[in-house]
Amino acid sequence: MLCLGLSGGLDKVYENRFQIPNSFMHDGAAVLVRDGQVIAAVEEERLNRIKHSNKLPISSVQYCLSAAGVQLSEIDHVAYYATEAYCNAMLENMLASEPDASIPLDAKFLVQQLLAQEFGSELDPSRISFVSHHQAHAVSAFAMSGFEQSLIFAIDGSGDFQSGLVAVGSGAEISQLATFPENNSLGLFYLEVIRYLGYGLFDEYKVMGLAPYGDPVPYRELFEQFYELSANGEYRVHLDRIGPTLLRTIQVRQKGMPFTQQHKDVSASLQEALERIVFHILRHHREATGMTRLCLAGGVAHNCSMNGKLLYSGLFEDIFVQPASHDAGCALGAALIVSGELGRPAPRARLQEVYWGPDLASDHAVEEELKAWAGHLEFERTEEVADRAAEWMAGGAVIGWVQGRSEFGPRALGNRSILADPRPATNKDRINAMVKKREGYRPFAPSVLEEDAREFFDLPGSACEFPFMNFVVRVRDSKRGLLGAITHVDGTARLQTVSRKASPAYWDVINAFKQRTGIPILLNTSFNNNAEPIVDSVADSIATFLTTGLDGLVVGPFLVKKRATTLEDWTALAVSLPPYVSLYKVRAHTALDRQETVCEIRTDHSSLDGVRISHDLFDLLTRIEGEAVLADLLDTITLDQAQREALTGELRRLWEQRRVRMRPSQAARVHQN
């Protein structure tokens, strides 16, 4: 029995028929289960390279079908992660705002139509289902927890006009106890506050990392005006009070401005308020139900600091957090719901790993990809890849590490990771500045051999398995000075324990590092820069390697380093524009308050994220039809050597921002082969 779960929007990628806002139907993904067991899963952003992609996950579906070796017509059931009534209401709202758009107001027909267009076979409407958004969250957690019984808490921003639920899971049944309306959303509560800290949607985790730098006391009473706690675990948030109050009280931070202590204290108060409300809800339902285990899902369940507080509180004997708790995880829940309804529930077993995405190509194919970059890369194959990588890191290198199938969810768990020595505090600053290009306060996670975790981390009770980076735990006092790169300012770390059985290649490289240094831990962060999703393919990893300050790259059995390059090496590359970017000429004010025509490159047709480029580069990019070798493009206009170097440098900066694509030309690939 094959069941396919979907999350994401109701439009095809690079189309904007519906002008779907990113706050609606984001984080597209596809998950394929056979008889209740996951065989393939991937987020659409990993494949189309658009962060939080809010389109129908066509590429993800293609991958899942390919992984199973089946056609769409062989899928027994397709499940979408929201109710049909909700989807139809959203379509009606979009039609009201876009009266000239041709939008079918039947969501089931629309999904059927889009899948038929892409895959050439039309599914019978009876094989397409729509499931409750928060039920999908709940099932995605409980079915993967291994618990026979537990309390379930699914909480996020919104979905199906609600923001969460509390339920009890028992066997194959889930009984709902309470739901939370959209206007009482803890996700929206958090989001509304961070707008005044210079952040927005999808930035919530950044504020969670900022909170330990602040003190909640100065704004505690202020935040108590924003929510009320009442009997029976009930609560109310006052979203309408937040903006007016903060505008009167704090200096609003604009994006890019430095953080003041005031901003840090507000972050701390916000985190404290969230935790107080969540504990209030869970204490009541823990006592009312007698449940000693807890399952968490929904976007708010990615708040690892909150999860850590729950872990140490002793309120529950065991807590399971679904590793893809955000909306992409609803694709998993949707697939499991219909699989269960068709008599194939998920086996009752604790989830051990989520390496469900695309595998690396064959060693031969990887080698051919590396050869094509001969002007930029040098590489060697080795049978001692873990030892050599550990040697690099022990010597101070920061490396990209790409092995096996990619992880499902937002965390790099050792197959698409950036790795480094966890000891020097300077590693944190270096990676933030030169690789991730992000705020310097943000912490990095440690990956530790499961059997050594308790020596370095203060873990509550008998718990020793934390494979998904879902909990912030305490670094032992005696180890904090030693682990300077992964210990946060409050003495904590977002822990991943690594099992030799579940992740043998990753265990091997950590163990090899231990043999050299005595430290069974590596700094682990996602393999990407600030402008892109986590890498998935070999090509993705090469692009990120060449556009960051990484010292080395390990792909399968290959050790890769950068060559010293010349202008000719760069101009030999082919250049193209991704489908999600557009070129514009607009009138704008200059520093002298004069108007002039400027050139911009924008993503997703948005005027808000435009990057200014020179007129020469604009003219150059407009000459591209599909793909063109940079040297040939430069030859179409009269330029001296300095101008060629300047334009090439400007183009390389756009590549770093993923606003253009650069890769070896087909001619270069043929020559290398």
Automatic annotation (TrEMBL):
Pfam families: Carbam_trans_C, Carbam_trans_N. InterPro entries: ATPase_NBD (IPR043129), Carbam_trans_C (IPR031730), Carbam_trans_C_sf (IPR038152), Carbtransf_dom (IPR003696), NodU/CmcH_Carbamoyltrnsfr (IPR051338). SUPFAM superfamilies: Actin-like ATPase domain. Residues 390-562 form the Carbamoyltransferase C-terminal domain. GO terms for molecular function: catalytic activity. Residues 23-336 form the Carbamoyltransferase domain. It comes from the Bacteria. PANTHER family: NODULATION PROTEIN U. Belongs to the NodU/CmcH family. This is Nodulation protein. It comes from Mesorhizobium helmanticense.
